[in-house]
Write a structure and sequence with these properties.
alpha/beta, FAD/NAD(P)-binding domain, five-stranded parallel β-sheet, 3 domains, binds nicotinamide-adenine-dinucleotide, about 475 residues, seven-stranded mixed β-sheet, binds flavin-adenine dinucleotide
């Protein structure tokens, strides 16, 4: 039986970060992956294929928009096979970075097998052999939750795991769930010609955002698809040879459809791991309970990525992975923090979210905070590109410390990046105004918000009146 310094279970974003980091620091590492390829959900069923599909759909959308504007006529339907090829190309290119050879080249033993705990140090592989880990990292990810829906077998069911391989595009699709998976993929599929209805049990989509950020995105999405909130899919029925989805709640109705896409949230992949044999505890949702050091209830076992449910994004899985390398390889007690970890939803317009929302800050601090909001009406690049939606909002404390930074708009995930750096380094928002932005760039919207900070300071100090008087004399 071979003993490793670190055994990593799961070859996705979290597991690959830990395995590569630990091996580069000289640890003997085994990486176990139950599928026959590395990369996990992000590469095969998540971030990468969805962004490639979004890009393909955007091309089609832009084509129709431009044709209309220039008085041209477009014939035919967008080809699903072409869109699928684009997705496959993107996955194949990125797969090279996550190749088995690359990880073997780092000295890692890559083992393609299912893993199961025998105790808190021993792992039974589906091949039959047993390996020992001084430290073990669980990075097994998550899977889509499929809510019970009577008669679901009457129509095609898609999830993020099957959509990119669909033979043909559906004609009429009901999307169960208007979270990021539901919204991003609904918009892409709608732009490729699918008639989409989103059904969400929540009273509104994008509830984690402040209203001024979510509203422009919601309004755009509602132009491209139907969104039924406070509603759920109860069952699927057949009537006169047609299939209907029965929706209950605020928008009760029977809706004809040929495909049901399920994007109703995620469940952690812990089934079959025999966590009880290792003494690893889970919460009510089945997520592995971790301390801030990412140690589980067993000090030598760590959990990273979607399986701990803390911040289910690829970049957060990488962030957690680095923390685990520091703690498991060097014996440190570094604590993970999500305070400066953003997220972006790649709808069109995009959503960018960093730190606290105004709703959250108000709850915590009452009125003891400042908000600097700016729309695109004075950003020449956005005006030139006929962008009428983009908006940015920065929330600070009285001294200018950034508590939250949020935006909606095309490419918002790019033009908001300066604020991630500033917040991470505790820089005052006042400093944005000192930066010179290239003209005309979209990022000027952030600079304009920064200028508001000084305008307010000047006004508060009464200096503006003195200055006005001085300037009038000067003239
Ligand atoms: C449609 C979609 C779009 C997304 N888009 C984005 C995005 O744009 N940006 C972003 O940041 N996040 C995005 N996400 C979220 C992102 O994909 C996940 O947060 C990320 O993949 C989590 O990484 P992970 O390593 O925890 O899990 P995974 O990447 O799922 O990796 C887990 C691995 O463990 C393996 N495994 C499971 N059980 C076992 C076992 N018993 N033995 C051995 N191996 C096992 C699995 O086969 C898998 O390869 C998206 C998700 C979806 C569904
Ligand atoms: N751009 C990105 O970074 C990106 C994109 C996609 C996914 N993700 C990650 O993947 C995770 C999962 O996303 P998701 O959208 O699958 O889950 P989610 O939990 O974020 O959203 C699920 C939605 O489904 C609704 N819902 C749940 N059960 C329902 C039911 N029975 N009927 C109707 N509606 C129901 C919920 O109200 C919710 O709005 C996200 O938390 C995010 O971290 C990130």
């Amino acid at each position: 039986m071979k003993t490793y310094d670190i055994v990593v279970i799961g070859g996705g974003s979290a597991g690959l970060t830990v395995a590569a980091g630990a091996a580069q620091f000289g640890a003997e590492v085994a990486l176990i992956e139950k599928k026959n390829t590395l990369g996990g959900d992000c590469l095969h069923y998540g971030c990468v294929p969805s962004k490639a599909l979004i890009a393909a759909a955007k091309e089609v959308h832009q084509l129709y928009k431009s044709a209309k504007r220039f008085g041209l006529t477009v014939h035919g339907k967008p080809g699903w096979q072409t869109a699928k090829e684009k997705v496959k190309e993107a996955v194949a290119s990125i797969q090279e970075h996550d190749s088995e050879e690359r990880f073997r080249g780092l000295g890692i033993d890559v083992i393609f097998a299912g893993a199961r705990f025998r105790d808190n140090h021993h792992i039974q592989l589906s091949s039959g052999s047993i390996i020992k880990g001084k430290r073990i990292v669980i990075a097994t990810g998550s899977s889509p939750v499929i809510p019970p829906i009577e008669g679901i077998e009457h129509l095609k069911v898609a999830t993020n795991e099957t959509v990119f391989d669909m033979e043909n595009l559906p004609e009429r699709m009901v999307m169960v769930g208007g979270g990021p998976v539901g919204l991003e993929l609904s918009q892409a599929l709608s732009r490729l010609g699918v008639h989409v209805t989103i059904v969400d049990s929540a009273s509104e989509i994008l509830q984690k955002e402040d209203e001024d950020i979510s509203k422009p995105v919601r309004e755009q999405l509602k132009l491209e698809m139907t969104v039924l909130t406070s509603s759920t899919v109860e069952k699927v029925i057949k009537k006169e040879g047609k299939t209907f989805v029965v929706i209950r709640g605020e928008h009760s109705q029977e809706l004809e459809a040929d495909t049901l896409f399920i994007a109703a949230g995620r469940k952690p992949n812990t089934e079959g791991l025999a966590l009880e044999k290792a003494g690893v505890e889970v919460n009510k949702k089945g997520e592995i309970i971790v301390k801030e050091t990412l140690q589980t209830s067993q000090a030598n076992i760590y959990a990273a990525g979607d399986v701990n449910g803390a911040f289910p994004f690829t970049h957060a899985a990488g962030h957690e992975g680095k923390t685990i390398v520091a703690n498991a390889v060097f014996g440190l007690k570094r604590k993970v923090s999500y305070e400066n970890v953003p997220w972006a939803f790649y709808t069109d317009p995009e959503i960018f979210h960093l730190g606290k929302t105004e709703k959250e800050v108000r709850k915590e601090k009452g009125r003891d905070y400042r908000v600097y909001s700016m729309d695109c009406s004075r950003v020449d690049r956005m005006i030139a590109e006929q962008d009428k939606l983009s908006v940015v909002k920065v929330i600070t404390d009285k001294k200018g410390k950034i508590l939250g930074a949020h935006a909606a708009g095309g490419h918002a995930s790019d033009w908001m990046q300066q604020l991630i750096y500033m917040k991470t380094n505790d820089d005052s928002f006042s400093k944005v105004s000192n930066s010179v932005y290239p003209y005309p760039s979209r990022g000027e919207i952030v600079k304009n918000a920064g200028d508001l900070y000084w305008r307010e300071k000047l006004f508060e100090s009464g200096l503006s009146k003195v200055m006005a008087k001085y300037v009038s004399l000067f003239r």
